[in-house]
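Slide 14.
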Amino acid sequence: MPRPRRAWVSQETGSFHIISRIVGGEIILYDGEKEYFLKLLERLASGFFVDIHAFCVMGNHFHILATGLELEAKKASKKELYVRYKAVYGKDADPPAGSVESDGTLIPDEDGGVERLRRRLGSISCFVQELKQTFSRWYNKKYERKGYLWSDRFKGVIVDKGEAQLACSAYIDLNPVRAGIVECPEDYRWCSLGLRVRYPGRSKKLLTLLSTLDDNIEGFSRLDSPGKRIDTKSFYRYRKFVYLSGGLEKEGKAVIAPESVDDVVSHHGRIGIGDRFRFRVKNISEGLAVGSYSFIADIQKSSNRKFIRPRTFIEGSYLFATRVLRL
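Slide 15: predicted structure.
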């Protein structure tokens, strides 16, 4: 029997909770594999018309909460489509300008392949297909392996706009906590909350915060446009909601310790300087220079180093860091 067509939801209506598991449920995704998956997700998200709101890469499966931006895809110019295509497939890749017959004959599209690109880059299904297939090829080559890596096709759950998206996003970020891998979601490098806290600059390029939460954390609305600067207060409210959810008892699952929940709630979801220092402490141990912006610039100048823009060491402070003191 042919597979049933997937249910579809407009970006104005909701999102998709995408889930895919390793065949046989075997745990084969370790630190290196998870990091490659994250980098691949970043690359593909920069090309496809999709907003990534939350993700988590576990040892044998992954979760992604995403909204397809089909309206933006329909309005995209040929130039933008080409730029996005090359972001996905490489700067030397040529976008398809037609269909290829079985004998290799190319039948050109009348519009030069514009609509073809709009359909492909504006498709959530194509996005996930590219993510899984590219990862599979990389993994099989790395381990000299053959055969399927992922179990069947991905599961795509339609998530209604509003509170359902919020609950789904929190569920995704709490996966490593519920599995007993970490005590708090930020301790896990390969989930969206961990990325936001550990690497705020990197997270802003990949993630679109779903919500502008009200003070009672009862509902939210999506930010006005993709790529808009994250509303810090909204993020704090979201973090507070995740901790409150993670502190609830769930049969057979681990929970966030009550004292951790109380600490986050009492600070209204804010991340204290202690936590920021804990997550960024590697900047000292790895031989980086840490100090004011001018201090970093002077160090680079005196050592004849190529200028690397100092990055914020701890948000909300005047400390910066950059890789200039590798000994």
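Speaker note: Residues 162-181+210-271 form one domain.
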